[in-house]
Amino acid sequence: HGVAQSPRASPIEQLVRGDDEAELVLTAWAMGYSGAEARLETGLGAKQFDAARQRLLRKLKSAAAARKPK
């Protein structure tokens, strides 16, 4: 079900592959939702959403740091 199931997933989608809740957050963000709207769109509880959002942000930050030229 999420965006990461595509055979040609983007690098960002590949970061969250296997983390269903992070996939839901990423999908909601990609659809233009943010904040409480994004949480409602995912169907996750507040704690679940916040945990998934934090995991997603950590993965994005780590990937961005790895891409920066040294």
Write the layout of secondary structure elements.
Layout: H1 11-16, H2 20-30, H3 35-42, H4 46-67
Helix pairs in contact: 2-3, 2-4
Quick description:
By secondary structure, this protein is mainly alpha-helical.
Description:
It is built from four helices and no strands. The protein has helices spanning 11-16, 20-30, 35-42, 46-67. Helix 2 crosses helix 4 (46-67).
Uncertain spans, ≥5 residues at pLDDT below 50? none
Average pLDDT, rounded to a whole number, is 87
Number of beta-strand segments: 0
Strand content: under 5%
Residues in helices, as a percent range: 55-70%
Overall geometry? elongated
* Helix segment tally: 4
Distance between the termini: 37 Å
What class, by secondary structure content?
mainly alpha
How does the major sheet shape up?
Answer: none
Radius of gyration: 12 Å
Order of helices and strands: HHHH
Oligomer kind: single chain
